[in-house]
Amino acid sequence: MHFRCHGCGATVDAGDALPFRCPNAGVAGNDIDHVLVAEPPDAVFPRGAEQNPFLRYRTLLSPYRLARAAGLTEAVWTEIVETLDAALVAVDGRGFRITPMAEQKSLAAALGFSGPLWIKDETGNVSGSHKARHLMGVMLYLRVLERAKLPAGDGLRARRLAIASCGNAALAAAVIARAADWPLDVFIPTDAGAAVKQALQDLGAGIAVCERRPDETGDPCVLRFREAVARGAIPFGVQGTENGLAVEGARTLGFEMAEEFSAAGVAPAVLYVQVGGGALASALAQGFEIAARLGGVEKAPKLIAVQTVGCAPLARAWNKLDRLDLTAAARHRSRFMWPWETPPQSLATGILDDETYDWWAVAAGMRASGGRPVVVEEDIVARAHNLARLHTGIPASATGTAGLAGAMSEMSAPDLYGPIAVIFSGVER
Ligand SMILES: Cc1ncc(COP(=O)(O)O)c(C=O)c1O
Q: In this structure, which CATH number among 2.40.30.90, 3.40.50.1100, 3.30.10.20, 1.20.120.1200 belongs to the domain 101-129+250-424?
């Protein structure tokens, strides 16, 4: 089971070495966009009845493929997934199940949409958001290494997990780490909310508060996280640049949507996705692309990446990209992506990453599907949040309904004359 860097082409055998950060990333004078991506699955699109997505779509996931290549049986994979799932139920009251997706007629009518509006609801997922999918993919890989006694797993248990986040990703990491009984350090900013801090502590996570230092630029939490990883911690965050495997786990969301649309006989025309670091949109683009290639859905919808006026580095990169070849762009990252110049601000606080770390894969997904980014005004972010609650009853945060704000901001665009798909994620806390 190999991973390949989409920027420099380096390959990593996931049984021999951890396929997290590209081995060539961080080399001085190297401006390449490095992200390790699993070699594409060539199985047929699964049509199983399992309710746990990590069982149902297992043949499309690299940890399963690695497990089988290393001689572990189907039964062992099922046991690994089900044991972790039972522990998640004990820690968080729920395990991974196919999440609900439904047409929202009342909301579509209130917004005056001519195309049907489909909402996938991730607010009831493990830890209250889709973020847990990303990290379950990583944890399953770690479990396979241990179980199959592969060289990449040597000394693994002595290494702590690490993440830089103070929101949904941190909570997801803490829930999964606790379920797996694996120590975790969370690098948080000085202004992190008291409730999240308490929840992380209750879950047994170590907390490191990161002050901004006068002599350095960039997010201090990410800087401290990278230092911890350099000292041997396992990157357990949701940025593909730091851990390519993290993107893969959330492809399951795309697989589920593809299968649900196909079963309903609906061909989604557009998919609006709220974008912060970009791992979610990257995972969805890849999930739909794989599903379309393997016959799981007729074709991938246009990917529309949604950011707010207070922080839109992806739209900035897209405009610079123009018609440039993406392979060439991957060799000059800093021409396209750099931290947002002013302090990012929005009601949608969860998508204020000052860089869209996974920008390249999202741009590739938009190019391939005929999509583009949209940048929405704050009043629309607020309206989307209120109307979503009123007309669907789904308790999503303003971050989690920001994709809808993207659709609302383009109501006269011709794209809207077809089924629209949006993801609500991040339960209101
Ligand atoms: C609820 C919710 N939706 C979407 C996102 C965006 O995900 P990404 O950072 O992978 O772009 C986040 C990120 O924190 C989130 O919390």
A: 3.40.50.1100
Structure pTM? 0.97
Indicate the helix (H) or strand (E) that contains 195: helix 194-202
| Separation of CA 267 and ligand 1 centre (Å) | 25
Which of 119, 131, 311 most suits a substitution to test ligand 1, by most atoms within 8 Å of the C-beta? 131
The answer to whether the CB of 308 is under 6 A from ligand 1 is: no
Task: Please check whether the two domains, 2-91+131-246 and 101-129+250-424, share a CATH topology.
Answer: yes
**Cα distance between residue 145 and residue 158, in whole Å:** 14
How many angstroms is it from 402 CA to the middle of ligand 1?
A: 10
Residue spans of the domains in the chain: they are: 2-91+131-246, 101-129+250-424
CA atoms within 13 A on the CB side of 350: 31
Q: What count of other Cβ atoms lies within 10 Å of the Cβ of residue 390?
A: 11
Residues of the chain with pLDDT under 50: none
Q: Measured between alpha carbons, how far is 251 from 206 in angstroms, rounded to an integer?
A: 29
Residue nearest to atom 15 of ligand 1 (CA): 350
**How high is the pLDDT of residue 412?**
72
Q: Which pair of structure tokens corresponds to residue 353? A: 């990453």
Q: What is the pLDDT of residue 414?
A: 65
Q: Supply the pLDDT for residue 127.
A: 98
Q: Does residue 249 line the site of ligand 1, with CB under 6 A?
A: no
**Would you say 120 and 255 are in contact if contact means Cβ atoms under 8 Å apart?**
no
Give the single-character DSSP code of 44. Answer: P
Contact indicator for 144, 103 with CB cutoff of 8 Å: no
pLDDT for position 1: 96
Find all residues with CB under 8 Å of 342, minimum gap 6, and list them.
Answer: none
pLDDT at 115: 83
Question: Given this model, what pLDDT does residue 64 score?
Answer: 98
> What is the distance in A from the centroid of ligand 1 to the CA of 387?
20
Q: What is the pLDDT of residue 288?
A: 98
Tell me the CATH number of domain 2-91+131-246, given options 3.40.50.980, 3.40.50.1100, 2.60.120.200, 3.30.70.580: 3.40.50.1100
Distance from C-alpha of 304 to C-alpha of 365, rounded to nearest angstrom: 9
Per the CB < 8 A criterion, the answer to whether 19 and 244 are in contact is yes
Distance 48 CA to ligand 1 centre (A): 29
Q: How far is CA 145 from the centre of its chain?
A: 23
